[in-house]
Amino acid sequence: MISLAGRDIAHSRGKFFSTGVGLGLLIAVTLSMAGIYRGMVDDAMVLLDNSGADLWAVQKDTLGPYAEPSSVRDDLYRGLLSVPGVARAANATYLTMQVRVGGRDVRSMVVGIEPGASMAPGQPRYLVAGRHITRGHYEAVADAASGFALGDKLRIRRDEYKVVGLTRRMVSSNGDPMVFIPLKDAQRAQFRKDSDALWQERRRAGADPERTAAGQVRSAENFKAEQAANPYVNAVLVQLRPGADPDQVANHIRRWHRLQVFTRAEMEKILVGKMIATSARQIAMFLVILAVVSAAIVAFIIYTLTTGKIREIAVLKLIGTRNRTIVGMILQQAVALGLIGFFVGKIVATLWAPVFPKYVLLLHGDAVRGLIATILICLLASVISIRLALRVDPAEAIGG
Amino acid sequence: MNGIEIEEISKRYGEGPTAVEALTSVSLRVAKGEVVGLVGPSGSGKTTLLKCLGAVIEPTRGRMAIGGETIYENAWKIGDLRALRRDRIGFVFQAPYLIPFLDVTDNVALIPMLAGVGNAEARRRAIEVLEVLDVAHRRNASPSRLSGGEQQRVSIARALVARPPVILADEPTAPLDSARALTVIKILNDMAKQFDTAVIVVTHDEKIIPTFRRIYHIRDGRAHEEVRDEASV
To answer: CA-to-CA distance for B233 and B231, rounded, in angstroms?
Structure first.
């Protein structure tokens, strides 16, 4: 038996394929939306992976350093180094801001790290060009996604930094490229006041230079030192010795150092379950809407194709064609349309994924799930057309 | 004989006071090799009779036999009406109604294919009939590329390919001019003899009525036979 669906598709291939391409663009959007979500999760995982940390020690009762502001003294890391199971500990600051270079600025996550400690947690990994930060001030390592080049002069607050190294896949959970600068510079940049604020502070302090806002007595030297330094960081990143139990070490730090400590698993929950949860729900809504729209379009197309063949279906029934042959024809056309749409969608999504400003991760598993969903949607969408075809009376072919 | 035979066929639509008696005790018989006309004005019941003969609608009562076998006697005697229509009744419609996405050969070969005949054998049978009807040279053409006359020949070939005992032609000349209409009737007469099949032509086309030797006039659901000495075809 010949394939009626195949012959019909071949007969109206222009219309069929152009419809398939249209559906494919819709499927490409759907796959891209899924890819954007996967990219966000991957960015979050990469952020944790690339930090090189096993534990994140942050201010008590906060979800820092990525999800909430956190502030801890920059000398705390010394105490953590003495905790059993801790191999390394390093201060880190995180600040998302506009970094200017030349006439443009780039949304970046500025990370403060200890210079010259390339093995410490929080340091940039995967250098693709240049070197690590070795000097205490005004050097930067930037992620290639920022578009910065070696030798570029970046402006962060009022200071200029020279790009000495480039990394890859060092991004925040929002997908912003990271720019690493020396810790001291980052601490200063984080709390740096503008000239007016400094003047106001000095004016207030000038009224009673020996007392703080809380009324405590202080010396003039102390006041100057307060103005010049910021002894806080956002987090202390901890690397454990091989075989050390992260939960045990975390509990120890929580108990004796009165800090909030997150393990890798807990940090994953914060990043994926809290930080990108709303975006994920938003994307899920889009996916549902796109699935419904796709189903409606396929249903409409198949219905239109079927209504255009009512007379032929009546003739086919009259000359003895079984209902299952006609149902098979409609289903095959729906599936063929879905397959054309899916493969067009997959190709288009793959081609345009690198153009997106944020990382789009197209997983094979998602593609397979997308294919199954597309086929199911097409099959469901053809139900109306099948009902219509089954209702066609062979007598319609007789009597004009 | 053994073409088609019906006795006292009636068809009523609806029930109670609103019921309509579309056919009342209609009897006719057409022998193999014979072409008869079924004529009558619109609403006379000829299309209803054709649908009953084609096993598309069920009569209310009576008896019908095709090829000597009773298929209806106050109820269908055959379970698979699709197979009955496919194997034992050929249909020629007012318009050719060829399947637009199949070429000429497959339009004709579709019927044996539906009956389970292999594609190659079905196409061989189709081409054989197309040759008889002088359209085999268009075997690979799409229906849309055929002339009106060629399309009608292909539709006759489709009706003949299963070698059915009866062919039902529903206004087959309605859209044609006189010359083409007479050509179609001549083809049907020739095929009836060559394929040994009974042909019933439903028509109200005045120009072809003189071509029938036997005519059944349908009026108000009743049939009256008219036999002529000479047919002009």
So the answer is: 6
